[in-house]
Design a protein that fits this description.
The protein is built from 14 helices and seven strands. The chain is an alpha/beta fold. The longest helix has 32 residues. InterPro entries: DUF3533 (IPR022703), T7SS_ABC-Transporter (IPR051328).
Length: 431
Amino acid sequence: MATAQDPPANPPPAPPRATARKVLGKWPVWVFPSVLVTLVSFCLALVYSGGIGDPQGSMHHLPVGLISQDAGPLGEQMIRGIAAAPNPDQKVDWKLMTPAEAQDAFDSGRLYGAISVPANFTAALTSITAPPGTAGTTARPQVTLLTNPGAGSLASSLATGVEQQALRAASQRIGADLSARQRATGIQPSAAQTMLLADPVSSRTVPGHALATRTGLGLTAFYVALLVVMSGFLGANIISSGVDAALGYAPSELGPRRQVRTTVPISRFQTLLVKMTMSVVLSLVTASVVLLATAVVVRLAMPHPFQLWLFAVCASAVVGVGAQAVIAVFGGLGQVVSMFFFVALAIPSAGATIPLEAVPGFYRFLAQFEPMRQISGGVRAIMYFDARADAGLQRAWIMLAIGFAVALCLGLGITRWYDRRGYHRVHPADG
């Protein structure tokens, strides 16, 4: 007779090992991944293509200055005529400015372009209509079209296109007016005068705020900001997975090796504190590595390295803390949610590659709070606009502080509520 200590005479057979074919043949395995992958792909396609579809058609209040240095009346008449011309859907925000006001706006990134009328504009135009045989001129007066490469290459391109179109229409109006005045005096214009008066104003394009070399035509600030955001976001995901593995809430796998540690009894609140603290501390490393690589190896222009480093560290820490809060609140879906918030929705609403004045209103709304917009604005101010507060740096610091406070309140508050409601990751009785 078998005793209680003896092994059973006929132990139960081990369950058969599953195969890939058997697993793939079960429809419940497919449901959640299929639905989630489809939704994520669809939403990503909408988000990215919606932001870049039609910059010119989406233009709204593109800031362009109008400057007259003309000693006579025609320069003022021309720029006021441009400002008063029909402006459907308020695509352009024409700003009448003095040269000093325009330069200050260029140096702070508040202007994307400007039309500057020279001091001799009236005299040059009047000389064209001089009676034949007198000392006239066949030279067209030249207006300067100013751009702002620091606002981004596309912003400068859009501003230049607007300026050229407005200048061409204004030139033709002034030419027709001058031609009519000349005929009213009984003087018949010569063939050369008729040709000049058809379009009497020429132009040249120059930067209103020049950038240093190795600034990527005004795009390096965006890529530095993107690196800062990605280092904070990816760092948060790596830290979250590593802490969960160290505490025994997730397996640790390296190649063929798999390890499951003994579960450490710890609340969600305390776990999030660990993850947030590590994100803040390691942001010193990630931001330093990003700037070291871009400044020393790639040799991008960085006129204020310490300010940029300090801003990058704080920005990376805020993104990391925010991502940790989202992951703690949403659990397994947190990585997808944080990816959308910090990356997918952030890039088209950053106003870096495509100015906010040239994207649909939905993205302008997102730009009010999306981290990438605030971070790219701060990085751009430091790298291109002498770290001026009114170039976007002050707003960036304020929004980083608000974002950090919101992330702490959201993450720690909700995990504390989870703990009090008994939503433990592992029930205390099982620990």
